[in-house]
Design goal:
The longest helix is centred in the first third of the chain and has 17 residues. The chain contains four helices and six strands; from the N terminus they run ααββαββββα. A six-stranded mixed sheet has the order 2-1-6-5-4-3. The protein is α+β, with helices and mostly antiparallel strands and about 140 residues long. The chain starts with a helix and ends with a helix. Helices cover about 35% and strands about 40% of the residues.
Amino acid sequence: MNTTEISRNAVEAYIEALSSGRIDDAKAMFAEDATWTLGGDLPMSGTWHGRKGIFEDFLGLAFGRLDASTVALKTTNLVAAGDTVVVEWTSDATTRDGGHYHQQCAGFFIVNDGLITAVREYFDTDHARRVLFAA
């Protein structure tokens, strides 16, 4: 298997595990010292370090605003080249206060030795602020 195939397989395995609610399997697709960066000035913006930082702090904060049973992730595009995988996806869910969250996202995933080592995510932070973090 070449580097592109290994990278693609790792990211697809992460997406499938997360979409199926298998958090431990999703977490296992990340290197112990991985990072996840989200721009903007949301409470969840910044660079999150390590599996704990990514899954418990960053994703925990994001998913904590949503009714977990309603979260639906759908990959709309995935392109892999070497150690880089670019993914577009939609996130739909009901917020804990009954609102509707619909987000279109893009992420650059870097994979080394079959594990995700870095993610840079982009989405509409204004929508997230209005729906998830309104005062």
